[in-house]
Structure formats: C-alpha cells, structure tokens
Amino acid sequence: MTLTQLIAQYGYAAILVGAFLEGETVLLLAGFAAHQGYFSFPLVVVFALSGATLGDQLYFFIGRRYGDRLLRRFPNLTPSAQRVNRLLLRYHASVIVGVRFMYGLRVVGPIAIGMSELPAWRFVLFNLLGAAIWAPLIAGAGFMFGQTLQWLFADIKHYEEVALLVIVVIGIAINLLRKLLHMGR
C-alpha cells in the first residue's frame, strides 16, 4: 500500500482522532497535505472541528464527573480551583475559546473548566466557537506553509540559475584578470 493510498483511506479519520486528542501537529500536517492535493481543505476543517469539539466536550464532562475526586485526592489544588472558578464565571467566553490555543492545556483546560460551576451549555457554545476559529486557522497555517515552500523552492530554482550565471561570470573574469596580470609581467 502506498502513502497516497494510506492517506486516502485513513487520512480524515486520523485528522478526527488527532484533533480529538490534541491536534495542532496533525492539523498542520493535514493543512499541508491539503495544499499538496491529498485532502480537501474544507473537509480537513470539518473533521478537525468535529474532533476538537468532541474531545473537549469529553474532557469537560470528565472534569464535571470526576473533578471532586481529583480535589479530594489533591486538596492543595482547591484554592487554585476556586480561583479558576471565579475567573471562569466572569470571563468564561475568552477562557473557553483561549484555552484551545494554549499549548499543553488542550486536555487539562476543559477538565478544569468542567470542575467549575460554569453551566455546561455555555461550555458547549464557546467550545464550538473556539473550535470553529481554531480548525481553519491551524489548518490554514499548514496550507500556507505548503504555499510558502512551493513559492520558496520555485524562487530558489530561479535564483540558483542566476547564482550559477554570476559564479560563471566571476570565474571567467578572474581567469581573464589572471591572464592579463600574467601577460604584464
């Protein structure tokens, strides 16, 4: 089985699972693959948005269900959890949307938010909004990376030819200068 066949058969499922778990690297690569023609960019965004939303919803409900057990097991986290709860109740929209963009907090963030008193419907709404911003932005960065590489390599080829011509001209000039200096002796 070739790489193209693997991507065609399992690519969108890999995007869904990758976005469900953490996602940035998988989504950047998927955006790049979309630029190369292996994927449809809109489908990459749809699968990433779906996986990211479902993953964070699961983590939120894990925090909602098991958060008390975590705090009983680690009581020194209680003051921090109370502080986070106060911040969430005041700035819930920006925290929910923003946690998606904070590296290393994609799993822990929704669990902590689930431990708060924030109503679940608000998390669902802003989680979906955050995923709708995140998926095209990160996939777009991968797509633009592919575009930049294409542009850069096309330019390198153009400059390679010019550089080769300059090197040849300089070589001829040095050779002529040596001959002229040698004849003058």
Automatic annotation (TrEMBL):
Keyword tags: Membrane, Transmembrane, Transmembrane helix
Superkingdom as given in the UniProt entry: Bacteria
Signal peptide positions (record): none
Transmembrane stretches, start-end: 12-33, 39-62, 123-146, 158-177
Segments forming domain VTT: 23-142
PANTHER family reported in the protein's UniProt record: ALKALINE PHOSPHATASE LIKE PROTEIN, INNER MEMBRANE PROTEIN YOHD
Official protein name in the record: DedA family protein
Organism field: Pseudomonas aestuarii
